[in-house]
Amino acid sequence: MEIREQLISMATEARTASRFLNCVGTERKNMALAKIAEEIKNNCGYILTENRKDIEMAKHNGIKESMIDRLTLTESRIVSIAESIEKVINLPDPIGVSEGFTRPNGLVINKVTVPIGVIGIIYESRPNVTVDAAVLCLKSSNSVILRGGKEAINSNIALVTVINKALELCGFVRGCVNLIQSTSRDYTNELMRLHGYVDVIIPRGSAGLIKAVCENSTVPVIETGAGNCHIYVDDSADFEMARNIIINAKTQRPSVCNAVENLLVHKEIAKEFLPFIADALLEKGVEIRVSEECFEYLDGYSVNGADEQDFYTEYNDFIISVKTVENIDCAIEHINEHNTGHSEAIITKSLFNSQKFSNRVDAAAVYTNASTRFTDGEEFGFGAEIGISTQKLHARGPMALKELTTFKYVISGEGQIR
Amino acid sequence: MEIREQLISMATEARTASRFLNCVGTERKNMALAKIAEEIKNNCGYILTENRKDIEMAKHNGIKESMIDRLTLTESRIVSIAESIEKVINLPDPIGVSEGFTRPNGLVINKVTVPIGVIGIIYESRPNVTVDAAVLCLKSSNSVILRGGKEAINSNIALVTVINKALELCGFVRGCVNLIQSTSRDYTNELMRLHGYVDVIIPRGSAGLIKAVCENSTVPVIETGAGNCHIYVDDSADFEMARNIIINAKTQRPSVCNAVENLLVHKEIAKEFLPFIADALLEKGVEIRVSEECFEYLDGYSVNGADEQDFYTEYNDFIISVKTVENIDCAIEHINEHNTGHSEAIITKSLFNSQKFSNRVDAAAVYTNASTRFTDGEEFGFGAEIGISTQKLHARGPMALKELTTFKYVISGEGQIR
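ok -> structure tokens follow
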């Protein structure tokens, strides 16, 4: 069978399954999720064996250590995957939430949340995403087509097999959770072109992956983009607060998208603040890359020069670029020019500057006097998240269960006509 | 200059203008809208002269009458365009609406509505859409790039010139309202590929236009799709109510997307109901196309046969396709297979069947005992609309000012870190 036909067949089964999921109540969905958690724990040995194959192949292919780490499952990681399912069970069902109003002609219009339908998720070689994505889609009554990175294919097949066994035991129809088992890129390309069969594609992973999906997909895409995040230290900032926030945002977990990558400092405080923060950053082992004008304030410090490209770069590492700015307007302009629309922060004591920054910076999350690291479904109180949207349509910022729903208008009349 | 460079230059100016519009308050926006209405009325002669050129060219090119009618402006149509601007002035500003909550760590998280940014609108030869789109975008603080049908180019240039004169008089920066003045298709194609420069593209027009945009755009698209709408007459339906609703939904304005195109009748009532509704439809001059099994109930009636294609067709005309179904499940299945996700109705006295139909039919608006013609921004009480979305992301159903906004999270702390 041709690739497109295979995928259409998979998507058609997923569509039927989505209609089934649409009619399954909360209790039955939660029972199925509990069964999945149970089966994942029960099949720990099988999953680890299959994961081992992926790891050996990755080592054989010289894949770098950090990637092998993300690929690796252990008994304790499997337990924590199962535990995260328990958390999703405890979240409220996002489906069937309604708000309504009555029109002057007596029509009662209710806006009711409903599943999106068939969701495609394209991601890299992290087996935990396979379970997260399947579980969030099931909780929101969507069927899902998973397309994970090729390095994790054996792990993914094992996990989806276990998930589907659990769903079958609970009497769920086939096609709720689907995995593309071929590792050929042609499948990814065709998946993106299933307009009418797949309702949305969510890419999770590197900037390159996301760009490729945005440019080639005929299916609507929700970008979960890169985070080139900034902290601007205003001239009225409290230095200690600024230092604590910058160190937290840069070093608490530098590999994630809400870590800070760029520091902008009001020129009036540069002379005092730059050495102060450089001490703290260097002590934490952070490489500092500064623009030209900073060098005079950092005489004797071990810092490197930053070029223009540095200010567009999401390092995801113990590196930060630093620059001084004339004033808050220049800071806002710099951020709107260089950012990816993720998370930006100002450290200030000025109410006016906080308001100006919040109003004018174009990003999913704009902070005053707090770390950018809070842009996260759990930290926002939304529960589990499927990613952070850096685009403006449908979802922006942390995407949790609610963002996996759409709505319909359910209208009730007594014979009204126009 | 290359086409892409021209459009990037236009979009960059539009981006700057969008940052200006983001900071303009409600009063100033409303004053500018009032000035636009005034200038349109004051420049009626100029607009009509330019419109005349388009009409003559259209006649010369043998464009069909109904299209020339949509292209034609008259003094009274211009007055009604200006009046519709007054209505938008009176609508509440959709920007800056916020809802917030406080996290256990004291972070205050506010979700605030903000403009989307730069909106591209691709539409056919209806000059009134030029004004509608510009006005709705301005009211929601978005800048807009308009790409109207080539047959209306002189009218559109005149209208946008007048709009921009009004904006200039109000001290607005250049680039808030932009029109692509070349009629070459290459501009449309490049506009769709300005990912990163344009935030969303909204196509308005024929199914062909919308399909082309969805398949080729790298910019996110909101589909305002076709309406292949159904009415299902359940076995418990009140015949008179069913007739009134069907006649209204088919004949009150057959050219619009929320008109009904297909009638499904429960087989138990077919013998009685089909002649009853055929009388009413034929009296209104509606052509009836029936599937095979209906003929026996309509002996002596002037009806035609429907083929499978008829049930996929949005006639936009005095034509309706008719079919009997075994039961409500078959009706739902037929609708989900053939519909375009717009508006669907059931006529029934059964609460269970109303609930089942409302839950399972996949469409933007699902009616019980009311005409599909109500799917409309004004009828829903949303005020002016920019189209009816038939997709599931961001907006579904009537798209009004709120759907031209996105949001950001504005977070206020006192030094919180993770």
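The two ends of chain B are 50 Å apart (CA to CA).
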